[in-house]
Design goal:
Elements (H helix, E strand, L loop, with lengths): L10 H20 L6 H23 L10
Helix pairs in contact: 1-2
Length: about 70
């Protein structure tokens, strides 16, 4: 079962976290590994998970901002 954790981030904190996630995604993609189908699948899964996190953060509002109706 997956748990959800709500963290109140300011806009600068969110931008810093997004920047870090992009760096991590690049590091995963560029990591030198022995070529194999398993390694490729593992790398692709990691990149997808990082992408989902980036999408979540890009779609979230910074703490202290109200939803617009």
């Amino acid at each position: 079962m997956s748990e959800t954790l709500n963290v109140g981030l300011t806009k600068p904190q969110r931008e810093l976290l997004l920047r870090g996630l992009r760096f991590v995604r690049s590091a995963v993609m560029l990591e030198v590994r022995e070529p194999s189908a398993e390694v490729d699948a593992d790398r692709a899964a990691q990149v997808r998970e990082i992408g989902r996190l980036v999408e979540q953060l890009e779609g979230s509002r910074p703490a202290g901002t109200a939803a617009r109706v």
